From TrEMBL:
Signal peptide: 1-25
Source organism (scientific name): Psittacicella hinzii
Protein name: Surface protein
Keyword Signal tagged: yes
Taxonomy, superkingdom: Bacteria
Keywords for this protein: Signal
Pfam family, one: DUF285
């Protein structure tokens, strides 16, 4: 059954409409849709490659953006050809939390404690993000997308943004210079998207669990500016093949890095300078299991 759409208010310039996904607005003068859903409520635009329509899609919440992208990629996705998502305007967003995350479950500590031991075994503790797991029973989408022109000037959080996924994507053009939190950004991934070695992470204060359980972290992050980094707990934990030279990292702001190298291949020669840079207690905790 086709999605029903009801026009609520129509002015000379703006139409407010209600679709199955909720309320969205269309500004006729500027060809801008705000918080739209990708379904038949878009009329003749549904089914088209929106990158070539001259329309702009603005989002004011990361949850609305996630729903739109999942539906759009499912309809247009192609493992071989890159899907252009640069018609999406992210300039009003303050976070991209879990926007590209695959199938996952997120529960609180209270919910976790109510589970059986067997049920608990499938979840991992991600600190203030709660307990997370990827749903491996469903086939993960493979994203081959282009978001190189996205405006992240107001984005301060990339928590879980790309977790539980498989990507063909280059992130080198993303300006993440205002981001402060990158918790679990790439957790549970088979590989990390290309280009993060070019990221300006100079304002990031929290990278806890960022690469936890990531199989391939081949992107070199040895030259990252982490001078404001305060919390890096379990950042590389269970990334079995991680072994990069981080001796040049500026750790002057570091307050905690518990288990950052636990269950990795990290050699002491690649972090030997840390002993003189951080407190003895932090240094002793670098390989602590969770």
């Amino acid at each position: 059954m086709a999605t029903k759409i009801k026009t609520i208010v129509t002015t000379v310039a703006v139409t407010l409409a209600l679709s199955a996904g909720g309320l969205y607005a269309y500004d006729k003068a500027s060809n801008v849709y705000t918080d739209a859903t990708y379904d038949s409520s878009l009329g003749e635009l549904y089914g088209k490659n929106l990158a070539y329509t001259g329309k702009k899609f603005v989002f004011t919440s990361s949850s609305s953006l996630k729903k739109f992208i999942e539906a759009y990629v499912k309809y247009h996705g192609n493992k071989k050809a890159s899907l252009d998502l640069n018609f999406i305007d992210t300039s009003k967003l303050t976070d991209l939390n879990f926007v590209f995350a695959g199938d996952y479950s997120q529960i609180t500590e209270k919910e976790y404690e109510a589970l059986t031991k067997e049920e608990q075994s499938s979840y991992s503790d991600f600190g203030e993000l709660g307990f997370l797991k990827c749903d491996r029973s469903k086939k993960q989408q493979i994203y081959n997308i282009d978001i190189s022109l996205w405006d992240l000037s107001k984005v301060e959080k990339l928590n879980g943004t790309f977790m539980c996924q498989r990507f063909f994507i280059n992130l080198s053009q993303l300006d993440v210079s205002n981001v402060k939190e990158m918790q679990a950004t790439f957790a549970f991934n088979l590989l990390v998207p290309e280009g993060i070695n070019y990221w300006d992470v100079g304002n990031v204060t929290n990278t806890s669990y960022m690469f936890k359980m990531t199989l391939n972290t081949s992107n070199s992050i040895e030259s990252w500016n982490v001078s404001k980094l305060e919390h890096a707990d379990y950042m590389f934990s269970s990334s079995l093949f991680f072994d990069q030279n981080l001796n040049d990292w500026n750790l002057s702001s570091l307050k905690s890095a518990k288990g950052i190298f636990s269950l990795t291949s990290m050699k002491e020669s690649n972090y030997q300078t840390w002993k003189a840079k951080i407190s003895p207690n932090i240094y002793k905790s670098l390989f602590k299991f969770q």
